Amino acid sequence: MIYYKIKCKYTVTEETDEAKLMRFWRKADSSYVGGQIFRVIILERDDTTIDALLMFSVSDHSLSSIKKRVISEFDETGETIKSLNFSKTPEEITVTEAISLIRCRTIDGAGGNAYRCSKRVATRWCNAEYLNDNFDLKFDEFVLPHTQLSFLKAKDEARGILADESFYEELERIYSPLNKRKFCGNPVNYLINAASRETAKNLVKLLTKALYSNKRLLSTRVAYVTELGDVSYDKAIKNLCENSYASVVVIECSDSNIKDDRFARGHERLSEDIYDILKEYSLQTAFILVDLGSKACKQAVGELIVKEDISFIEISEGKGDNSTGKKYLKTLLKENKVRYVKEDFVIPEQEVYSVNDIVTAYRNIKKNRIRNSLYKSYKEIKPLKIDAPVAVSNSYEKLQSMVGLTEIKSIIDQIVSSQKINKLRVEMGLDVTGISKHMIFTGNPGSAKTTVARLLTSILYEEKVIDRNRFVECGRQDLVGRYVGWTAKQVEEQFRKAMGGILFIDEAYSLVEREGLYGDEAINTIVQMMENYRDTVIVIFAGYPDKMERFLEKNEGLRSRIAFHIDFPDYNADELCDILKLMSKNKGFTLDGEAEEKCRRIFDEACKNAEFGNGRFVRNLLEQAIIKQSSRLVKEYGNTKIDKSIVSLLSADDFDINAAKVYKTEKIAIGF
C-alpha cells in the first residue's frame, strides 16, 4: 500500500440541496470512499475543497490511474457531486502519519454524537495491523521527497557522507542505460557495513533516492526495523513486508538488539528470521541489511546466497579529507538536532577521517554538551575510576571456573572431543552411522545440571560441533497434550524449536509418574523424534538418579540412544563454602572469620540430609542472611550514617537462621 495526502476541488449538481448534500457527506464521513482497489478517507472539507487521505496498492495500479478512478467513483450515481479535480500534487506520507490523520478526524455518529476512530479500526483501514500495540516489532519510518536525483548529484551527495568506492560502483549500476526504467521486481538486496545507525541511515536515504529516480521503486517510504520482536517470523513483520511492495525495508543487525531468552534466541534466531523474511519477500521489496557488528547478519546473507540464490551488493563506509569530514560531522549534528556551542565542537585534527572517526566525535559532542553547555556546574568534576572486573572470555572457561564438578569437567572434555572428531569424520566422508549424541544428566536439585547443559550448548557451538547456539528447555507441561493427538504434535514442536542445538528435557521422569495421562505417548514420540532429528538435535534428559532409571526402563529404545551418562554428585561442605564465598563476592558481601566457621558447621550438618538443595541451599542461606543483616543494622544504627565496610560485612549472627534444619531425612545411598 502507498499513502497520499490529497486536496481536491469539487462542485455539486444544481439539483443538490443542502439536506441532500449533508446526507452524502455523512455517509462518506462514516467510513471511506472506494473499496479493495483504493480508499479515500475525508479528513476536512468546506463548500469547495476536500482534504483527504488516499491509499491504494502500487502492485496493481499507478497514481495516475487511481486519480481517474477516484474522480469517476467518488459519487457513483452522479446525482450529488458534479465534478472533482485534484488541486495540488499528492504528497506521499508514512503509514504512521496516515493512521494518526484518521484518528484525529471527528465522525458524526447516531443521534448527533461525535466520536473519533480507534487505532485498531485505523490500522485495519490502512492494512497495517503490524502497528497495533500488541506487537513488539520496533521500527522507524520516513518518506523521502519525490524528486529526481541525477547521477552527478548522487555522486556529489555520496562524497558528502564519506561513501566507499563500493557505493560509487553501485551508483554506476543503478544509473546504467542497460537497465529497464520500470519496476519489474527487485534484482538485488543490500548489505551495509556501518559504524552507527545515524551514518547507516544517510547511506539508506541516498540509495533509496537513487533507486526511486531510476524507477526501481514505486515509493520512497522506508521502514527501518531495529528489533524484530520475540516471536520468530511473527505476523507483524510479515504484515509490514506485505505492505511494503516496491519500497524499502531496512533490518538493522546489532548485538545490542538481541534478547537472550530461555530459548536462546540470540544470533541464531535473528539470522533465521532474516533468512525467512528475505526468502519470501525479496523479489517484491528492496531489503537493506545494516550490519552494526552482528554475527547474525552475514550468516543470514551467506545462507540466502547459497541456498536461495538471492543476490546482495555489499556497501561499506569510506573516508574523507579534513574539510569533508568536518562538514559531514556538522551535517550529522544538524540532522539529529544536536545543538552545541563552538567549544563543544571538538574533533582531532587529521588529514583523513574515517566514518568511525566522525561517529566517535559526534557521540562525544552529543555526550559532552549535556554537561558542558546545559548543566555547567558538572563541567569540572573528575570522572570516577573503577577497576573493571576481569570478564570470563568464553563458555568453556566459565565451566572450568565453576566450583567442584571435577569429574564432570573431564567428561565434558571427552564429549566435546568426541563430537569434534565425529564432525571431522563426516567432512572426510567416513562413516559415523549409529553414533549417538544424546545424554542423560542425573543429580539432586541444585547440582548445576541446567547450568552445565547451557554452557555445553555454547561450547559445542563455539567448537562448531552444532550449527546453532540454541538451548531449548522444556518439561512435562510442554510435551504432554491435554487431548488425544496433541502430545505427538507438542513433542515434535519442541524438537523443531531445538533444531541445530540442544533440547533439554528437565524432570524427564515425570512423564512416567502419571499413568493414563499421555506420558507413554510422549516417551514413544520422543524416541521416534530422536531418530528423525538425530543429525540436527542433541537431547539431554535430566532428573533425580533413582527416578531416571525408571524413566529409561519405560521404553527399550531410550537407553540405547543415549551416548553419555553424567552423574552430578552432591557438593561437599568445602565446596559449599567456596560457592558461598563466590556468591557473596558477586553480591558485594564478605564474611568475617566467625561467619565462615558457622557456615561450615551448617554445611556439615546439611550434607547429612538427603536432597538438601546443593547450590540452591547456599543461595537461600545467603539471601536469608542478607535479610537478617539488614534487620540487624537498622536496629543497631537507626537513622545514623553506616560505613560501607559494615554494610558489606556478614557476621556469624546473620547466619543464625533455620535453613539447615529444613532437610531432616537421612541420606540414603542411591544409584543404578
TrEMBL record:
<dbReference type="Pfam" id="PF00004">
    <property type="entry name" value="AAA"/>
</dbReference>
<dbReference type="InterPro" id="IPR003593">
    <property type="entry name" value="AAA+_ATPase"/>
</dbReference>
<dbReference type="InterPro" id="IPR000641">
    <property type="entry name" value="CbxX/CfxQ"/>
</dbReference>
<dbReference type="InterPro" id="IPR027417">
    <property type="entry name" value="P-loop_NTPase"/>
</dbReference>
<dbReference type="InterPro" id="IPR041627">
    <property type="entry name" value="AAA_lid_6"/>
</dbReference>
<keyword id="KW-0547">Nucleotide-binding</keyword>
<dbReference type="Pfam" id="PF17866">
    <property type="entry name" value="AAA_lid_6"/>
</dbReference>
<feature type="domain" description="AAA+ ATPase">
    <location>
        <begin position="435"/>
        <end position="572"/>
    </location>
</feature>
<dbReference type="InterPro" id="IPR050773">
    <property type="entry name" value="CbxX/CfxQ_RuBisCO_ESX"/>
</dbReference>
<protein>
    <submittedName>
        <fullName>AAA family ATPase</fullName>
    </submittedName>
</protein>
<dbReference type="GO" id="GO:0016887">
    <property type="term" value="F:ATP hydrolysis activity"/>
</dbReference>
<comment type="similarity">
    <text>Belongs to the CbxX/CfxQ family.</text>
</comment>
<dbReference type="GO" id="GO:0005524">
    <property type="term" value="F:ATP binding"/>
</dbReference>
<dbReference type="InterPro" id="IPR003959">
    <property type="entry name" value="ATPase_AAA_core"/>
</dbReference>
<keyword id="KW-0067">ATP-binding</keyword>
